[in-house]
């Protein structure tokens, strides 16, 4: 977990990465965009996202994705694996 010590979010207000409310509208959507902008510049974003996907449901913006976006990524990854397995 030492990648966490290199995350750019360490220099930001932690609340920025834990939006409350509908992440698709209003002030919360702006907050999500601001958090994602930090993640886009982060040198450990790939590892952060991999951790957040592996660990399962976890609140907040990790690796530049919301919990809902990571859930969708997990579903796509599992579907792709099943399709590859059944096609073999
Ligand atoms: S990707 Fe985002 S949440 Fe993850 S360590 Fe970097 S800044 Fe923090």
The small molecules bound here are: iron/sulfur cluster
Order of helices and strands: HHH
Distance between the termini: 36 Å
Q: How many distinct beta strands? A: 0
Shape: globular
Helix share of residues?
40-55%
Largest sheet: none
Strand content: under 5%
Q: What are the low-pLDDT stretches, counting only 5+ consecutive residues below 50?
A: none
Report mean pLDDT, rounded to a whole number. 94
Radius of gyration, Cα only, in angstroms? Answer: 14 Å
**Overall SS class:** mainly alpha
The number of distinct helices, counting runs of at least 4 residues, comes to 3
Task: List the defining traits of the structure above.
mainly alpha, 88 residues, 0% strand, binds iron/sulfur cluster, 3 helices
Notes on the protein architecture:
The chain is mainly α and 88 residues long. It has one domain (2-87). It is built from three helices and no strands. The radius of gyration is 14 Å and the shape is globular. 18% of the residues are buried. The mean pLDDT is 94. Iron/sulfur cluster binds at residues 7-9, 17, 38-39, 42, 44-45, 48, 61-64. Residues 7-9, 17, 38-39, 42, 44-45, 48, 61-64 line the site of iron/sulfur cluster (SF4).
Structure at a glance:
With 88 residues, the protein is an all-alpha fold.
Can you lay out the helices and strands and say which pair or pack?
Layout: H1 26-40, H2 45-55, H3 67-87
The chain binds iron/sulfur cluster (SF4).
The site of iron/sulfur cluster (SF4) has 14 residues, from helix 1 and helix 2.
């Amino acid at each position: 977990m030492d990648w966490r010590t290199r995350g750019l979010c360490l220099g930001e207000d932690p609340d920025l990465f834990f939006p409350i409310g509908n992440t698709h509208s209003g002030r919360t959507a702006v907050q999500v965009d601001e958090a994602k902008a930090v993640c886009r510049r982060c040198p450990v974003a790939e590892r952060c996202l991999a951790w957040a996907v592996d660990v399962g449901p976890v609140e907040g913006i990790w690796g530049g994705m919301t919990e809902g976006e990571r859930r969708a990524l997990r579903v796509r990854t599992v579907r792709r694996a099943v399709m590859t397995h059944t096609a073999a």
